[in-house]
Structure prediction request, 656 residues.
Amino acid sequence: MKLHLIYHFQSSYTLDEHFRPARYKVLYCFTDDQLIGIDELKELAKTVPDADFNDVSFLSLDELKQFTNRVMQHLELNTAVLLSAQDYNVAIDTILKRSQFIDLFDSYGEIIKLDIQVTKKKLLGKIFT
Amino acid sequence: MIVVPIYWGYHYDERDGWDFGKKNSERDLTKLIDIFNNLSRKFCFLVPLTPAPFLTNGGIPSFCARSLSVGHQGLSLSFLDSEENLNKVYTFFEPKVLQAFSEFCHLLSENLKKIKCSSPVFGAVFTYFENQKEISYFEDRSMVFEQGFSRYLKKTYGDRLELAVPLDEELLKLKFSNEIQALFASTASDTFPHWAGIKKISFLAGNLQLNIQRCLKSGISSHILMKDLETNFLNRRWISSSLLGPLEKENLLGQYLFDLFGPIEIAKEFSLNVKLEYSQQYWKYLELISLFDSEKNDFYHQGLITFLKENYRWAYRNYDQLVFESDWIDENQDKIKFFQTKKMDKNLFVQVLKLFLMGQKIIIDISDLSPELKSRLEVFVIENDLQLQKVNFCTELIYTSLGEGMLILYEGKNLLLSDHQQFWKRIFTFIKLPHLYLNFGEDVFGFWKVRTSSEFELNYLDIRRLHLYNPTSYKKHLTVDVKKGFAFMKVIDPHLANAKSVSHKVEIELSPQGRIGLDFGHYQDLI
Prediction:
């Protein structure tokens, strides 16, 4: 079982004199089995510094990966596949059936393994607090 | 009565060009029409004016399918159909598409004329709901769209245009998109002599999120599909379940669809001259409250939708626009009508005031009333010698009446979040709109229907039927509070369910996948 995440890079813009920097916004996040609800994602995004948790968006790819790691820990999964909207658009054009959908992530996405360091630190933290 | 959606892309292939049955008998619409006529069946055609998610390439001919359509989130649109094929939706902003569509409409119209077919032809705008917002499959942000938009800007504004904020650009994109959509619509309406107008048809599970859920192992639960169906119903949409597979449609969802959209409702909507009499046999939707809010969010932000969900669940519906025609006015005379004035023009405002003069109950949020409409309102008050009562309760309220008519004006923008519930409670206590209170959560679904009382039921003003469905895997214990003015009559068609009447209540037990109907007599109108 893997975690699958589709994200979209949003360019920076200024609205009402308020500058909003470019961000990586999570569009959909799901396991092989089911979609993860937006409220659950918002809660998990709160643990990532500088995340806009209402929007589930991040300032850098590193932060997006931190978030992915956090979701993997939460769901007790070891592997995640990140797919950008652009790559999704290329990938989706190559499949014809429902059964091929999950596989396109392995073919076109970036595979991320659970960062054990972070998990260990958390475990140690629990032991010593 | 049969509704025939036209798969126009299927009438073209690279070898044969356009074909209506001469080269491939499966494209022979004349033969299909003969079959309908031989069986004396009424029918109408639906010509798609947008991509159709249930068809290969979104319904367009393969030579036009060059660039995938991209939704507002930046993802290409593709949808699982009922056979688990993933249909890609291609952009309608490719200039070839309009050209091919025009050729197709012309040829189809010639074919229909030849055989003197006078059945109505509707244009279909296919849509889906996402987070309570309706989105057309025509909406596109692909590279082809962006290129077309650049050409449009250059042609319309030359080099004069400077876009200050992203919002300006979005508004212009919307304008461009609407203009191209209008070109498709006018191409069809100008070509077909029996053009009957445009129908918006919304697809169940038609958004990307639900599509992804359908692609996953666990699939989509009937609870989510019923929620989607409920949203469509409350927004008065005609619904297509054609994306769903047989397993997704079986059991409770299928029954819910069947109960909600019977042959009479469909015939009525498509105006196929089916004689409809408001007789004992005819149940129509019970709609006590009609909401007119083009933006579809102001009433939500003012807490009205939450209040209605709690107190008048399934007895209110949203309208896109007011149909100011005598039949509609008569049929909807008794409904309480709520209006937002944002984007309201003078014509609509005058029509709303006329409804009040006709004895209807009208409630208007005047927060966004333009100065022009404000003066029109002042003149209206003087002309009709109306006595205004001004009250300050949570916000500024103005009340007046004339005969049966009631007019309440309120400043919705000044309503505080903490005041929402008490404000609406007071308003509805004042207007006295009798109904039964449903005491259960949002994971049980249903709807109301109503009919006039028969000669054997003269004690009642009308009979209200509540249909309930439990798509969850838990047994549900529900109660309906039977208020003064109502009497529980009988249980209809229970399946994995039972109900019993106790003092001033009906207690219902709905097992997983259970359903039940309950009839209530309404015997005393408190208004």
